[in-house]
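Tip: read the tokens left to right.
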């Protein structure tokens, strides 16, 4: 297992993980969300590509995360590799890479992700309205 920097050749694997995992962020929401493929989601693609991206590589990409400044922007794990420590390893790596106080945003209803972040000492510090594919989502800031 290796946490390493993103390579251009990893993009297809990241796209696949995104397509399989992105909507899980909203699984506790009342509305149904439709996936916008990463290549077509201008905002999320731009935010990803301007970030420092890390991948969890164990004979293939199992998850990835992205950091911009002190903000952890993305943490997605392939559904087949959840509950195996992939998310925690990526999260630990990104926190260490930031090297100081970090912040992130997460759907308020995403209790699974929030529980992981709370294990690392993060706490909810704010709430705001976000939007995905034209639908409103209440989100939390955590640091």
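Filled-in amino acids:
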């Amino acid at each position: 297992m290796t946490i390493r920097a993103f390579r251009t050749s990893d993009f297809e694997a990241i796209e696949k993980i995104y397509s399989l995992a992105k909507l899980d962020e909203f699984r506790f929401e009342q509305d149904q969300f439709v996936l916008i493929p990463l290549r077509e989601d201008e905002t999320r693609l731009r935010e990803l590509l301007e970030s420092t991206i890390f991948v969890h590589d164990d004979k293939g990409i199992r998850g990835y995360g992205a950091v911009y400044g002190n903000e952890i922007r993305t943490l997605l794990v392939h559904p087949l590799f959840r509950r195996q420590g992939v998310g925690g390893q990526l999260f630990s790596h990104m926190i260490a890479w930031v090297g100081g106080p970090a912040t992130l945003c997460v759907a308020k209803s995403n209790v699974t992700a929030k529980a992981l972040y709370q294990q690392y000492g993060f706490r909810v510090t704010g709430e705001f309205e976000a939007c995905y594919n034209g639908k409103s989502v209440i989100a939390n800031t955590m640091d």
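The chain has one domain: 2-103. The CA atoms of residues 70 and 102 lie 5 Å apart.
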